[in-house]
């Protein structure tokens, strides 16, 4: 049933504060406490609208003007003081408001930091840019309604939902509304071309513990926002979304459909509007080229006229829309349109991009301790194909600045056959190769055959990158889709000025999958009892190893608390990401072992930290459609601690009785870091 659901107020404070250190300021607490009035305020304002106004605000249409290419306007209601709000067309990959053709940040590098504070900083920076350019709404990818193991923020819903949610929290702090959902272009295709089914209708109740879990965590972590449906299929593909989102989760905000995402009206019948409303759509984006074949325009008005759509439902849709905008403060603090400003000042300088690349770069292999490069061992030869030549030049300069002797050579495309490598390669004791595709595999193999030490930097986001040379080279670094501005932080890592601390947010498969797999995520590999090339969560350090103490688990209400210690016996500080995975008893129909919690901490040399991490029991349950809650079966649940999905060194078992956990989005207790020993 459509209604303006009651907001869950202060319960939302948990996840965001969990990752921001657990310190809730008075202003933040007051803001969250006031969230309880959001739904009521939206419903009250929607009730004050005239029927024509209610019908108008359920669409965002192309903006007028020469400087508004690709932007849409939510019309507002001037009579009630509701301003026009501008947003991008979400059917395309989000770009910065300043028109820069490159994404503001390398998404997978950000996810590979496993650092929610950095994600929050990214959201704050993006909010500043969007607001200055007159845009009040921004889509945040990385999560979606339909299952996908290869979205921008990685393959795990808990990690992706938290990352997207912290970006959303940063956006909300700048009065920019985050809309959580992805588009097809953001999904990595598998090397063998196999894709999960995207067109068959699937009940939302079957997705609550899977893809929808990421959406729920994003909303919960951000303390608000909106949902995008239509990223990979029409909204009607996920049936019963309305009941899960508004009745089960008690989320009062809106569900948006991108242009064409709710189907298209082809005649003057009410059917398309009825289907969209039945699918839970509150706001439709209308594309510039739809030529009037939108859904919530003439089709909706026809449905209201002939009585097939009750006006109260349209009013509820308007209330959901207003609730989302009130969450962001966009209505009370609307950004000025960029066209009315004589000059848009650039954002202040920030180290965000460098910090993301430095923390997100993953060391996959380091035989013979080739990395970091030691200046005392002589020069390093840097090799790259023409496509990477410019980036290689910048990296070489940065490495020289770090004190290394560097020789740079550009090799021809297809190099690797006898006689095609530069003469310097045969004399070089250490070679650094920048590679962005499988086209370099022959060259890397030939270099390794020469007998020198070879380090390979992977500069693409391909999780299926083949590495036939893996056993022949010394070091492998996953640097993601880095380019010019990332040369300095990458050089700092290679030269040892900073330690590697990134961990994989997805599985590196090498292009090989167990038979019958549709998705290639870590749970699919575990179910097939196949070890991937590099597992989810994996990452090495050059500064030594830490030791994990015994794992203890206790139940506290609707959460488990896992406690353990982390000891750094070395002489240098190490940033570590201990990961906690949970597994249900084998006789219960619950997903296989999955990530439940993690912490990103720096451990000082010779010190021990005692950590506590909360785990929501809903990660152990199945969604109960009848009760609108999570059903947790009785049995012995195993929690495992380690540094990847397969490198788990501490285990604990907790027995749970049969439980029902409320379905409403909730708060999690703040994790505890005790005083170091």
TrEMBL record:
One of its GO terms (biological process) is carbohydrate metabolic process. GO terms for molecular function: hydrolase activity, hydrolyzing O-glycosyl compounds. SUPFAM superfamilies: (Trans)glycosidases (SSF51445), Beta-D-glucan exohydrolase, C-terminal domain (SSF52279). The keyword DNA-binding does not apply. Keywords: Hydrolase. The keyword Ribonucleoprotein does not apply. InterPro entries: Cellulose_deg_GH3 (IPR050288), Fn3-like (IPR026891), GH (IPR017853), Glyco_hydro_3_C (IPR002772), Glyco_hydro_3_C_sf (IPR036881), Glyco_hydro_3_N_sf (IPR036962), Ig-like_fold (IPR013783). SMART domains: Fn3_like. Residues 576-645 form the Fibronectin type III-like domain. This is Glycoside hydrolase family 3 protein. Belongs to the glycosyl hydrolase 3 family. Coiled coil: none annotated. It comes from the Bacteria. Pfam families: Fn3-like, Glyco_hydro_3_C.
């Amino acid at each position: 049933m459509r209604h303006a659901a009651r907001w869950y107020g202060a319960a939302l404070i948990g996840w965001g504060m969990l990752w921001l250190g657990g310190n809730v300021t008075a202003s933040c607490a007051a803001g969250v406490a006031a969230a309880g009035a959001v739904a009521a305020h939206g419903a009250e304002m929607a009730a004050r609208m005239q029927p024509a106004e209610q019908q108008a605000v359920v669409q965002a249409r192309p903006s007028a003007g020469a400087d508004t290419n690709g932007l849409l306007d939510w019309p507002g209601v001037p009579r009630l003081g509701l301003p026009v709000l501008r947003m991008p067309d979400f059917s395309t990959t989000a770009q910065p408001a300043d028109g820069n053709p490159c994404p503001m940040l390398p998404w997978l590098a950000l996810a590979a930091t496993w650092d929610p504070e950095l994600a929050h900083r990214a959201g704050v920076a993006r909010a500043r840019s969007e607001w200055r350019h007159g845009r009040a709404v921004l889509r945040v990818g990385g999560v979606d309604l339909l299952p996908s193991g290869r979205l921008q923020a990685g393959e795990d819903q808990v990690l992706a939902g938290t990352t997207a949610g912290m970006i959303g929290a940063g956006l909300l702090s700048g009065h920019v509304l985050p809309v959580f959902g992805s588009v097809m272009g953001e999904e990595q295709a598998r090397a063998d071309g196999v894709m999960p089914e995207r067109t068959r209708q699937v009940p939302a109740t079957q997705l609550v513990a899977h893809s929808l879990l990421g959406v729920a965590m994003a909303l919960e972590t951000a303390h608000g926002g909106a949902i995008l449906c239509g990223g990979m299929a029409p909204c009607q593909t996920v049936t019963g979304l309305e009941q899960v989102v508004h009745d089960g989760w008690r989320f009062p905000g809106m569900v948006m459909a991108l242009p064409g995402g709710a189907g298209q009206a082809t005649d003057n019948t009410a059917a398309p509007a009825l289907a969209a409303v039945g699918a839970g759509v509150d706001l439709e984006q209308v594309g510039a080229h739809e030529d009037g074949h939108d859904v919530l325009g003439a089709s909706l008005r026809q449905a209201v006229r002939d009585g097939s759509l009750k006006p109260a439902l349209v009013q509820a849709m308007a209330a959901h829309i207003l609730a989302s905008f009130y969450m962001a403060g966009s209505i009370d603090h609307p950004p000025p349109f960029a066209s009315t400003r004589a000059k848009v000042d650039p954002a202040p300088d920030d180290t965000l991009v460098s910090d993301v690349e430095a923390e997100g770069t993953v060391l996959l292999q380091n035989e013979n301790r080739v990395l970091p490069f030691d200046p005392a061992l002589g020069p390093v030869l840097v090799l790259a194909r023409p496509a990477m030549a410019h980036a290689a030049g910048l990296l070489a300069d940065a490495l020289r600045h770090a004190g290394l002797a560097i020789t740079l050579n550009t090799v021809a495309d297809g190099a690797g056959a006898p006689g095609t490598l530069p003469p310097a390669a045969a004399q070089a004791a250490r070679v650094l190769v920048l590679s962005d595709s499988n086209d370099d595999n022959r060259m890397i193999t030939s270099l390794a055959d020469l007998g020198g030490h070879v380090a390979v930097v992977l500069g693409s986001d391909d999780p299926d990158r083949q590495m036939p040379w893996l056993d022949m080279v010394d070091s492998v670094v996953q640097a993601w889709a880095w380019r010019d501005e990332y040369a300095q932080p990458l050089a700092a890592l290679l030269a040892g000025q900073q330690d590697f601390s990134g961990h994989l947010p997805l599985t590196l498969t090498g292009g090989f999958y167990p038979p019958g797999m549709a998705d290639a995520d870590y749970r699919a590999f575990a179910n097939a009892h196949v070890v991937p090339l590099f597992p989810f969560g994996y990452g090495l350090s050059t500064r030594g190893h830490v030791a994990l103490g015994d794992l203890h688990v206790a139940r506290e209400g609707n959460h488990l608390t896992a406690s353990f210690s982390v000891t750094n016996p070395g002489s240098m500080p190490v940033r570590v990401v201990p990961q906690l995975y949970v597994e249900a008893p084998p006789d219960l129909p619950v997903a296989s072992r999955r990530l439940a919690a993690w912490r990103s901490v720096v451990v000082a040399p010779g010190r021990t930290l005692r950590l506590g991490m909360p785990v929501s029991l809903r990660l152990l349950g199945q969604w109960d459609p009848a009760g609108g809650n999570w059903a947790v079966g009785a049995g012995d649940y195993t929690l495992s601690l380690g540094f990847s999905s397969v490198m788990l060194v501490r285990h604990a078992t907790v027995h749970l009785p049969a439980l029902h956990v409320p379905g409403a989005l909730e708060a999690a207790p703040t994790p505890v870091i005790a005083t170091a020993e």
